[in-house]
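Appendix B, Record 12. Input sequence as logged:
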Amino acid sequence: MGLFSEITAIHFRNFTNLTLKFDSGINVFIGENGQGKTNILEAIYFISLLRSFRCNNLKNLIQWQQNFFQLSGCIEGARSKTRLKVQFGESRCLFINNTKITSGSEFIGRIRCVPFVSEDIYLVYGSGSDRRKFIDITLSQLYPDYLSSLRNYNKAIKSRNKLLKHEPVNFKAIDAYDSILGVAGALITRYRYQLCNQLNEHLADISPLMLANNDQLKLKYKFSYDSADKARTLEEFKNIYLNALKENIDKDIQYKLTSVGPHRDDFSIYFNEKSLADFGSEGQCRIAVLIIKMASGRLSNAANDNDVIYIVDDVFGELDEKRKKSFLKSLQDIEQVFMTTTENKIPDVIQHSSVYKINDGNVIKCKEIKY
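Logged structural output:
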C-alpha cells in the first residue's frame, strides 16, 4: 500500500478546507473534546472504506449549510503515488489518479485500516448485524473477491425475499436465486469461519499481555443452519447451504423471508468459556473488544506485509496503566498510526510521534517529540 502521506477535507464535518501531511509511525492529534480530532480519523476511515465509523447517514458528514463534502488522499509507494478522491452530495463520485471510477470495490482496499473506537463495544452488546459488519469490513479489505461475493449475495437475498412475498410462489425463479446464493454464500461462509479461527490464534497470543492470570478470550462462529461446521471446501459449504435452503422453503414462504444463510450467521465472544455478553463486566467487555481489534490488526498486517494503518480514537480511558502501556507499545510495530488524545502529555512509551494540536478545527503540526 505505502505511506498515507496527505489528506484534504473540504466541507467535511467542521473542516471547511483542511490539508494535512502525515509521517510514518505514530501521528497523535491532541485537543479538547469537540475540536475535530475524531473528524480527522473519520475522514481517513471514510477514504479507506467509503463509510463512517460514527454514523450511517452520510449527509451528516457534510459541513453545516453546505451541500457536499470532498475528501482526497495520497498514498506514496516505493515507486509511485496513488491519489484517491471521493465527493458526496446528491450522489457519490470516486476518482483514482483523477480517473473517475464507478465501482466502490475498486476503490476500497487502496488504504487498509483497522479502527479502535469506543463504538467497538457493539461487538459484545450489539446485534448480529453489528458483528457481521465487523467481519465483512475486515474481510473486504483482505480479499477482493469477498466484497464482490457479498454484494452478489445481498442482491440475491433481496430478490428472493421479494419472490417469497408474491402469491403464487414462483419456485423456478427461487431456484435460480438459490443457485446464486449457493455460490456466493459458500465463499462468504468459508471466509468468515476461517477468519474466526485465525483471530482466535492471535487472541491466544495477545490475551496474556492484556488480561490477568490465565484468562482466555475466544470467538465461536454461529451458523444459522445445521452441519455447516462440518464443511471444509467451498463445494461442501455450497451443498450444505443449498440443502438448508430447500429444507426451510416452507418456513420461508410462511414468513416471507429467507431464514438461513450468512445474513443470519453470527459469532459469540467467550471469556473463560463463558458468554462475555451475559457474564462479563463492563471493564472486561471493553478490554475484550480492544483485544479483538488488535487481533484483527495483526491478521491484516500479516496478510498485507504490515501495510495496514491503525486509527485509535481515545480508547485509553478503559485501560489501567499496565494495559495502556502494553497497547501503546504494540503500536510501535505498526507502519502508520493515527491516534487522538485529550492529554497534553504524550506517553513516554511512544518513542517517536508526530504531534498535531487541534483547536476549533484549526490544526497545527508540532515538532517531532522524542523520548
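The mean pLDDT is 91.
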